[in-house]
Amino acid sequence: MEYLMVDGYNIINAWRDIFKETNTLEHNREILLEMLSDYQGYTDFRITVVFDAYLVPEGKGSLVNYDNLRVIYTGNNQTADTFIERYVVENKFADRITVVTGDYLEQKAVFLKGALRMTAKELRSELSRHRKENAKPDNKTKNFIIDTLDSEQKRKLKRIREDDGLFK
Fold it and tell me: CATH for 2-142, among 3.40.50, 3.90.550, 3.40.1350, 1.10.287?
């Protein structure tokens, strides 16, 4: 499995032209999650976004599913960096993990612990490239659900269609 772990607040702070300081933090998080959800549709990555609650009193931490993303809010006194580093150490042999952060020291730390790294700038470039490629009107690729099914599933679906008068 291939994972992309994103330090959410780090990306928000790195992309100040997109995430305005006048926006609420909640609004900026929502924009980031929408962008990453869209990106996940173009890639094979399972994306996890980590927001730290380091200074939130009595923060318990939580896991939220947002569209097709996993969103983690760390507990009190836990930074996104420490959460991501621990995750990389615990899963480095089971999965391929790429960590996205603009923090050079964090990039170096996760790389030394077995993960790949991607800068905030590289992620932005990837988002832009995938959006442009998939927006081209001459893109002949079709995206039908049936194309994702194996032969057994297709056979069963065909049998249902033939047996049911609704599809004739």
Answer: 3.40.50
